[in-house]
Amino acid sequence: YSYYTFIYKLQIEVSNEEQWKEALLAPGLLVVDVYQRWCGPCKAVQNIFRKCKTEYGDDLLRFAVAEADDILELSSLKGKCLPVCLFYSGGKLLSIVRGVNGPLLQKTILELVDVEKKKQQLGSKYVPEVNHGTYCVVIIKPDAVAGGQVEAIRKKVSASHWILTQYTGYFRCLFWVISLRSNYVQEVDMGLSDCSIEMDSRQLAFFFPTLNVTSDTQAGSISEIQKTLALIRPSLLRKRKDEILKTIHDFGFQIAMQREITLTDEQAKEFYKDHDGTDYFPGLINQMTSGPLLALALTREDAVLHWRGLLGPKVVDEAKEKSPESLRAQFAIDNVAINQLHGSSTPEEAQRDLNKFFPTEHTLAVIKPDYTQELRDSIINRIKEAGFSISQVTEKKLTRDMAEEFYKDHVGKYFYNHLVDYMSRGPSVMMILSKENAITEWREMMGPTDPEQAKQGSPNCLRAQFAKSILENVVHGSSNVQHAMDNIMLIFGDIPKQTLLKKEK
Ligand SMILES: Nc1ncnc2c1ncn2[C@@H]1O[C@H](COP(=O)(O)OP(=O)(O)OP(=O)(O)O)[C@@H](O)[C@H]1O
């Protein structure tokens, strides 16, 4: 097309890719009526366009007609031209209006021309306004979740003008709320038959009862943080450990706990006892015991469903064929028929799985003498906030004999007598803390022995914040399972031992 046709004709005709590119690059708003050969361009919309041109007409508003068959980008509209009008600026699709809807066409043109004017006036200072009122619910159906298509769908959403603001799991579906990044209505074509998108306030209210659609999109409350168990099987762990850990991280999971472990035949059979008798059972057990595997406790919102969604089909060949993007396809190991990644199927199963690989541990925590009531309460609050349960608690003054026994490993050190004096001069708070990984996590909360070193390396730890000196360093924690058992016995005697053993079962 030429400058002259543009001036004299209301709509330029675009009939090949070159013209399409040229039309998209020109400045201002481009309104394209997409038609199909058998019905021709829509006469009714031309009247509306002419009216708009006279009313708002300036060189920021251009019209075109294009045949769906001629242009690759428009080919998805074949059979759907009712008519369909597309609105472009700077080569980007901004909005779609279907059908001869005069008021909507006029309103859309007016709003978008207005945006073009602002862009022209403000240049690089122009910031698009965000319309918080436009929300959609995306339902990702079970087949798509199980088929490992979640990530492909997420990419499509974020490549468009939509932002994922909330998500939740329900039955075996994922529900997302997406909201518009920009100021106009736009349809999203996910190009996936498994994904239905609907705009319906009843759905929103049902699945996201706390969503406040008038609030800032980022402030919407994200669903609960969950934990799930992921297993990286021995062959993958040997060959591509760093890569799979990076991928897990990239997908927004935190690794709350990890443990490398070589399972015995018995342990593997117990873990997969529901699969006993299947033809793949011997291969699975063989693979599970062929070396160390890595057990991970992964956390993020809806961790269980998200991790399952990424894994894809269980059978490696099926994963490769149907969901090549899925992790089981991406991280398949040559000549190994068993998939390399496990994930719990439900939150209940996740809890059971996690307990197997990260059993509840008990540790002895002590708030050392001279604490104030306020300090005691604030340390106990921190303990609870960190997710420990306090299985037993007592306040008691150690006798000198008990203090000597408690710190017997330090006999002969220059600070030993001072330490025994300090520990026996007033009451201490003695607690049994229970949690997976309790020993390590409580020691991390305490921080290094010397508060000066603690202030440098971990300023939020208890010793950095409350310790007076390396000797009077506020808190104690067992250093290993044996110490924990010995000291719990020393302080609490026989009864809790039985309680603890019962809990461990
Ligand atoms: N160099 C030192 N000078 C003075 N006191 C020390 C010194 N090193 C350790 N202590 C005291 O002895 C306690 C036991 O020392 P240890 O090396 O076991 O440290 P910890 O395991 O960090 O502390 P805890 O056993 O009390 O949990 C310390 O908490 C501290 O009260």
Write the topology of this structure:
Elements: H1 3-8, E1 11-14, H2 17-25, E2 29-35, H3 43-56, E3 61-67, E4 84-89, E5 92-98, H4 102-122, E6 135-140, H5 142-146, H6 150-159, E7 162-170, E8 173-180, E9 195-198, H7 201-207, E10 225-232, H8 234-250, E11 254-261, H9 265-271, H10 281-288, E12 293-301, H11 303-311, H12 316-322, H13 327-330, E13 341-343, H14 347-357, E14 360-367, H15 373-385, E15 389-396, H16 400-406, H17 416-424, E16 428-436, H18 438-446, H19 451-457, H20 462-466, E17 475-477, H21 481-492, H22 494-504
Parallel strand pairs: 1-3, 2-3
Antiparallel strand pairs: 2-4, 4-5, 6-8, 6-9, 7-8, 10-12, 10-13, 11-12, 14-16, 14-17, 15-16
Helix pairs in contact: 3-4, 16-17, 21-22
Adenosine-5'-triphosphate (ATP) is lined by residues 415, 419, 449, 470-471, 473, 476-477, 479.
Describe the protein's architecture and organization.
The chain has helices spanning 3-8, 17-25, 43-56, 102-122, 142-146, 150-159, 201-207, 234-250, 265-271, 281-288, 303-311, 316-322, 327-330, 347-357, 373-385, 400-406, 416-424, 438-446, 451-457, 462-466, 481-492, 494-504; strands spanning 11-14, 29-35, 61-67, 84-89, 92-98, 135-140, 162-170, 173-180, 195-198, 225-232, 254-261, 293-301, 341-343, 360-367, 389-396, 428-436, 475-477. It is an alpha+beta fold and 505 residues long. A five-stranded mixed β-sheet has the order 1-3-2-4-5, sandwiched between helices. A four-stranded antiparallel β-sheet has the order 7-8-6-9, sandwiched between helices. Helix 3 (43-56) links the parallel strand 2 and strand 3. The N and C termini lie far apart (80 Å). The relative contact order is 0.07. It binds adenosine-5'-triphosphate (ATP). Residues 415, 419, 449, 470-471, 473, 476-477, 479 line the site of adenosine-5'-triphosphate (ATP).
